């Protein structure tokens, strides 16, 4: 059986969570169960259809999805890090978030012996504290009928021709800042040039949307022609009839990996390993590629040719991709956020 | 100041009628009481005069002017509410001054008139109190002063005494009447207490189920009730069903033959089923072993003693001033035989309902 | 008796005081990007928040929106409350439920409704463009106006019900007496109804002001990314920035400002009432 619980979390509730997490007697039934902290929407639904139902439930394990966007779940993981019993058995987060939380000693180092599918993982994506689930690349999306000369890099967003036509998703503030840094001659470990470029972008009337969905709406109505985005999103939007094409920027970009990890205070660690194994099954991986356009993270998940052609990256494109500098991001995160909020958005 | 005329005034709520074609004229300086059982339409009539309820039909004329469609604030009526309706956030003086302020009376004159009005109701020493710091009777007098100070064309009172205890009620009743007469106010007062109506008003209007039954002075209503309802409502009355057999003989349904004077009242005597109306205090009573009437109950009320008597199957109430000690009347007890007597002119014939 | 009261009292303390105390403690800590929070006893978070023109502006916006919404809610709520309070009793419970009805829907869902109405492809713009009145979509969403409209719609039921409860206690006959003495409707309102309803005006305004100062979902969803009020800023610090000490300091500043203004405002209004 799969049930969905919704977690609403506010600042003070986060503080309270650390109080209540340690309370005895509130524990859920201890039968075979695994609590998965995840996004809702497509991602949660695909987990349910391709992992929970076909792969985990038949093993007699009940899957509970605890649904929220990433930020409150991150906060909850941090708030509970000293508690004996945590909320989650599996935490799903992006690689940058995962690294940030892992730096606070929240996660169990993975025991490869318990992970049967461990050997199938692409070596480039392997981490000691998390399993890669799916991944995609940061690209520049553009509307081919409006942007008639195909752009080649992030810097093209600053072309005055596109005044008022560049859109950003507010929740991707870190990625957006990265694109500005690269356009301004910065690097994976130096976002400083982003400041000047973002202020330039501000005077070019950039538009900011509260969510990826709102941005998709703006792309669809052709209010916006250019935006930095995950390739997988671009693929989904294209399927939904939104007029976009993509380019892997020549300045270089990073891959985003959606990962899963086991908190140290998980109460069902064995079930959690079973769940991680299921996430790495080829059938599950193929389903995410087909529906959401994310690339498999295991060597043995074949993609149908039609999909592979749309979402795979050429050798040349892969050359331009690198992993983010997690430690730099960890240190600069609040500065990036502050600049985004106080200067760029003000 | 002016007269008040109601013309065929009616109020219907859906299919039910609260007031039905009321015609009434209150002359300058006259005090008229609306009297009737609960729910007969007294308050509704009064509120139509004040303008709070729009009439369904008919007209309200104050001082010769048709005000039927005039809003309450432009009507120049002064109303005293049953609950007093003082403004709780204003002092006694501010309450009384309110109407003068609305009439844009200058400050100096206003203060003088407020104090004069408060002196009139003997409350000038409490001018700065808030209403909640006053007794019920004092609040009542503030309400009076507040309504009087503006010299309204028509003075309206809705059961102004019902929240006072019996003793205070008697006093305030006299005060209101004295003020009304002194100031020459055209006044309409609502009450369901007939003693109140009888003592205060120049004329009474008896209402029943929205209609006016009879209008007249206390004496007219008492001595010459137009119908059995009025006879029964104003004072007490023995109402004996039967029919007139001769000009001076009334045959009760029970068979008893009672004497009367069918010519005493104006107009033709009713033929067919009728009622004989006989006031209890107009019946004489004497102990007589041969008498045809029997005492069924005796009630001693101090100044009066009431006897319930049965004669030939007809029950009658007799009220006599309590006789001095030693008088044979004092010894009358249940079962004793008595003789009843009355003046033929006191027995009025009324049409049966 | 004490045996009965004590556990309940402790629970209340647990639920109300403990999180606040915890928050107060956190606000004195120091933030570190790598370790998140370092134990300390410093007022630097408060100092930084007070000095930062950005947060001064956010607080200013919050105050402006809260005051504006309170005044609007009062202006719109008073006639509605009066009407409700003076309604015949058989309809009153139905009308009360109707007033309460919007509260059955959470702020997030309600804001989604506003978005569907005000968005570029929302009902209003679709209608305007469909009728050829406007060429392109009007920017109805993602601005202060949308937030004010959204918040007023949320707080209006609180204002109406608070006012209606007080207005119901004003004897109708006091109004009739005022009219009878020559008071026109506006004068009756100003001289009798309003002064007697003032306790309700104070209570309703305080309640609504506090709700507005702490509004979260509506400014986030209807204000868009560039519109910032205090509660979302606090949330941002906790959840996005992981800067708990600074977030806690911001939360306490919001609390203090709300408290001071509430006390000052209700005292001033209350004094007026006693003077009247
Ligand atoms: N708003 C209303 N809707 C329907 N019927 C009403 C309304 N107001 C009064 N009535 C009815 O009209 C009739 C007259 O009412 P009114 O208040 O005038 O009586 P009243 O003579 O003043 O009685 P009481 O001595 O009890 O005060 C009553 O039967 C009452 O039920
Ligand atoms: Mg009445």
TrEMBL record, chain A:
<dbReference type="GO" id="GO:0030976">
    <property type="term" value="F:thiamine pyrophosphate binding"/>
</dbReference>
<dbReference type="GO" id="GO:0030975">
    <property type="term" value="F:thiamine binding"/>
</dbReference>
<dbReference type="GO" id="GO:0030288">
    <property type="term" value="C:outer membrane-bounded periplasmic space"/>
</dbReference>
<feature type="signal peptide">
    <location>
        <begin position="1"/>
        <end position="29"/>
    </location>
</feature>
<dbReference type="InterPro" id="IPR006311">
    <property type="entry name" value="TAT_signal"/>
</dbReference>
<dbReference type="Pfam" id="PF13416">
    <property type="entry name" value="SBP_bac_8"/>
</dbReference>
<dbReference type="GO" id="GO:0015888">
    <property type="term" value="P:thiamine transport"/>
</dbReference>
<dbReference type="InterPro" id="IPR006059">
    <property type="entry name" value="SBP"/>
</dbReference>
<protein>
    <submittedName>
        <fullName>ABC transporter substrate-binding protein</fullName>
    </submittedName>
</protein>
<keyword id="KW-0732">Signal</keyword>
From TrEMBL, chain B:
<keyword id="KW-0067">ATP-binding</keyword>
<dbReference type="GO" id="GO:0016887">
    <property type="term" value="F:ATP hydrolysis activity"/>
</dbReference>
<dbReference type="InterPro" id="IPR013611">
    <property type="entry name" value="Transp-assoc_OB_typ2"/>
</dbReference>
<dbReference type="Pfam" id="PF00005">
    <property type="entry name" value="ABC_tran"/>
</dbReference>
<dbReference type="GO" id="GO:0140359">
    <property type="term" value="F:ABC-type transporter activity"/>
</dbReference>
<comment type="similarity">
    <text>Belongs to the ABC transporter superfamily.</text>
</comment>
<dbReference type="InterPro" id="IPR017871">
    <property type="entry name" value="ABC_transporter-like_CS"/>
</dbReference>
<keyword id="KW-0547">Nucleotide-binding</keyword>
<dbReference type="InterPro" id="IPR027417">
    <property type="entry name" value="P-loop_NTPase"/>
</dbReference>
<dbReference type="InterPro" id="IPR008995">
    <property type="entry name" value="Mo/tungstate-bd_C_term_dom"/>
</dbReference>
<protein>
    <submittedName>
        <fullName>Fe3+/spermidine/putrescine ABC transporter ATP-binding protein</fullName>
    </submittedName>
</protein>
<keyword id="KW-0813">Transport</keyword>
<feature type="domain" description="ABC transporter">
    <location>
        <begin position="4"/>
        <end position="234"/>
    </location>
</feature>
<dbReference type="GO" id="GO:0043190">
    <property type="term" value="C:ATP-binding cassette (ABC) transporter complex"/>
</dbReference>
<dbReference type="GO" id="GO:0005524">
    <property type="term" value="F:ATP binding"/>
</dbReference>
TrEMBL record, chain C:
<dbReference type="GO" id="GO:0055085">
    <property type="term" value="P:transmembrane transport"/>
</dbReference>
<keyword id="KW-0813">Transport</keyword>
<feature type="transmembrane region" description="Helical">
    <location>
        <begin position="246"/>
        <end position="269"/>
    </location>
</feature>
<feature type="transmembrane region" description="Helical">
    <location>
        <begin position="192"/>
        <end position="217"/>
    </location>
</feature>
<feature type="domain" description="ABC transmembrane type-1">
    <location>
        <begin position="59"/>
        <end position="265"/>
    </location>
</feature>
<keyword id="KW-1003">Cell membrane</keyword>
<keyword id="KW-0812">Transmembrane</keyword>
<dbReference type="InterPro" id="IPR035906">
    <property type="entry name" value="MetI-like_sf"/>
</dbReference>
<dbReference type="Pfam" id="PF00528">
    <property type="entry name" value="BPD_transp_1"/>
</dbReference>
<comment type="similarity">
    <text>Belongs to the binding-protein-dependent transport system permease family. CysTW subfamily.</text>
</comment>
<protein>
    <submittedName>
        <fullName>ABC transporter permease</fullName>
    </submittedName>
</protein>
<dbReference type="InterPro" id="IPR000515">
    <property type="entry name" value="MetI-like"/>
</dbReference>
<dbReference type="GO" id="GO:0005886">
    <property type="term" value="C:plasma membrane"/>
</dbReference>
<feature type="transmembrane region" description="Helical">
    <location>
        <begin position="140"/>
        <end position="167"/>
    </location>
</feature>
<keyword id="KW-1133">Transmembrane helix</keyword>
């Amino acid at each position: 059986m799969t049930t969905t619980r919704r977690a609403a979390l506010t600042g003070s509730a986060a503080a309270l969570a650390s109080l209540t997490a340690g309370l005895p007697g509130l524990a859920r039934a201890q039968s075979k169960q695994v609590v998965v902290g995840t996004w809702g929407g497509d991602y949660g639904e695909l987990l349910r259809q391709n992992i929970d139902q076909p792969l985990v439930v038949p093993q007699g394990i009940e899957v509970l999805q605890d649904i929220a966007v990433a930020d409150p779940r991150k906060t909850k993981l941090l708030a509970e890090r000293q508690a004996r019993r945590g909320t989650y058995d599996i935490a799903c987060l992006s690689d940058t978030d995962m690294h940030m939380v892992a730096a606070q000693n929240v996660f169990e180092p993975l025991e490869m012996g318990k992970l049967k599918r461990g050997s199938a993982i692409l070596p480039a994506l392997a981490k000691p504290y998390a399993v890669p689930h799916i991944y995609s690349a940061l690209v520049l999306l553009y509307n081919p009928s409006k942007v008639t000369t195909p752009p080649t890099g992030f810097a093209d967003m600053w072309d005055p021709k596109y005044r008022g036509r560049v859109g950003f998703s507010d929740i991707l503030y870190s990625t957006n800042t990265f694109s500005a840094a690269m356009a301004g001659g910065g690097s994976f470990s130096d976002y400083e040039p982003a400041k000047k470029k973002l202020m330039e972008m501000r005077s070019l009337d950039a538009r900011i949307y509260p969510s990826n969905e709102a941005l998709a709406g703006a792309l669809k109505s052709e209010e916006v022609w250019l935006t930095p985005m995950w390739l997988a999103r671009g693929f989904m939007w294209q399927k939904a009839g939104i007029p976009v094409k993509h380019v892997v920027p020549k300045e270089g970009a990073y891959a985003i990996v959606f990962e899963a990890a086991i908190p140290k205070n998980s109460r069902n660690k064995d079930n959690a390993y079973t769940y991680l194994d299921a996430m790495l099954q080829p059938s599950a991986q193929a389903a995410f590629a087909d529906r959401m356009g994310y690339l498999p993270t295991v060597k043995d998940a074949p993609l149908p040719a039609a999909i592979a052609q749309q979402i795979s990256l050429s050798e040349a494109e892969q050359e331009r991709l690198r992993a983010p500098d997690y430690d730099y991001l960890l240190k600069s995160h609040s500065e990036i956020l502050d600049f985004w909020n106080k200067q760029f958005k003000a | 100041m002016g007269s008040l005329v109601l013309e065929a005034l009616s109020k219907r709520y859906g299919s039910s009628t609260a007031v039905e074609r009321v015609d009434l004229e209150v002359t300058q300086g006259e005090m008229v009481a609306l009297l009737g059982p609960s729910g007969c339409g007294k308050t509704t009539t009064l509120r139509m005069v004040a303008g709070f309820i729009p009439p369904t039909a008919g007209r309200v004329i104050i001082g010769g002017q048709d005000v039927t469609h005039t809003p309450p604030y432009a009507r120049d009526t002064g109303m005293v509410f049953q609950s007093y309706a003082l403004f709780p956030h204003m002092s006694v003086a501010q309450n009384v001054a309110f109407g003068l302020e609305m009439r844009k009376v200058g400050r100096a004159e206003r203060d003088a008139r407020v104090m004069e009005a408060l002196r009139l109701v003997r409350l000038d020493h409490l001018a700065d109190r808030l209403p909640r710091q006053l007794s019920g009777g004092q609040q009542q007098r503030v309400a009076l002063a507040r309504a009087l100070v503006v010299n309204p064309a028509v003075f309206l009172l809705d059961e102004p005494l019902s929240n006072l205890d019996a003793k205070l009620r008697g006093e305030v009743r006299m005060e209101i009447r004295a003020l009304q007469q002194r100031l020459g106010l055209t006044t309409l007062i609502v009450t369901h207490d007939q003693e109140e109506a009888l003592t205060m008003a120049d004329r009474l209007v008896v209402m029943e189920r929205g209609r006016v039954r009879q209008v007249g002075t206390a004496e007219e209503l008492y001595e010459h009730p137009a119908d059995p309802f009025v006879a029964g409502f104003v004072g007490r009355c023995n109402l004996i069903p039967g029919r007139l057999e001769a000009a001076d003989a009334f045959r009760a349904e029970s068979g008893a033959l009672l004497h009367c004077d069918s010519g005493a009242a104006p107009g033709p005597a009713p033929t067919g089923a009728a009622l004989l109306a006989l006031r209890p205090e107009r019946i004489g009573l004497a102990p007589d072993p041969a008498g045809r009437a029997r005492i069924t109950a005796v009630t001693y009320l101090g100044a009066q003693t009431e006897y319930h008597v049965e004669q030939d199957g007809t029950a009658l109430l007799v009220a006599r001033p309590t006789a001095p000690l030693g008088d044979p009347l004092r010894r009358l007890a249940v079962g004793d035989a008595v003789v009843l007597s009355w003046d033929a002119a006191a027995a009025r014939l009324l049409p049966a309902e | 008796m004490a045996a009965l009261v004590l556990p309940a009292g402790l629970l209340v303390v647990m639920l109300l005081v403990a999180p606040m105390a915890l928050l107060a403690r956190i606000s004195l800590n120091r933030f570190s990007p790598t370790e998140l929070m370092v134990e300390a006893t410093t007022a630097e978070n408060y100092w930084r928040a007070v000095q930062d023109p950005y947060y001064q502006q956010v607080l200013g916006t919050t105050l402006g929106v809260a005051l504006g919404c309170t005044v609007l809610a009062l202006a719109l709520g008073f006639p509605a409350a009066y009407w409700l309070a003076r309604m015949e009793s058989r309809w009153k419970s139905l009308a009360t439920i109707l007033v309460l009805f919007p509260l059955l829907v959470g702020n997030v869902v309600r804001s989604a409704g506003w978005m569907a109405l005000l968005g570029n492809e929302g009902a209003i713009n679709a209608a305007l463009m469909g009728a050829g009145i406007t060429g392109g979509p009007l920017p109805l969403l993602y601005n202060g106006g949308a937030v004010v409209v959204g918040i007023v719609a949320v707080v209006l039921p609180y204002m109406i019900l608070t006012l209606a409860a007080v207005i119901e206690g004003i004897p109708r006959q006091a109004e009739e007496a005022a009219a009878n003495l020559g008071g026109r409707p506006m004068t009756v309102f100003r001289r009798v109804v309003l002064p007697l309803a003032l306790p309700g005006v104070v209570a309703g305004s305080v309640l609504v002001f506090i709700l507005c100062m702490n509004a979260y979902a509506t400014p986030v969803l209807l204000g868009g990314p560039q519109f910032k009020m205090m509660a979302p800023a606090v949330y941002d610090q906790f959840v996005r920035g992981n800067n708990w000490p600074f977030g806690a300091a911001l939360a306490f500043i919001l609390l203090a400002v709300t408290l001071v203004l509430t006390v000052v405002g209700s005292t001033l209004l209350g004094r007026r009432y006693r003077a009247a």
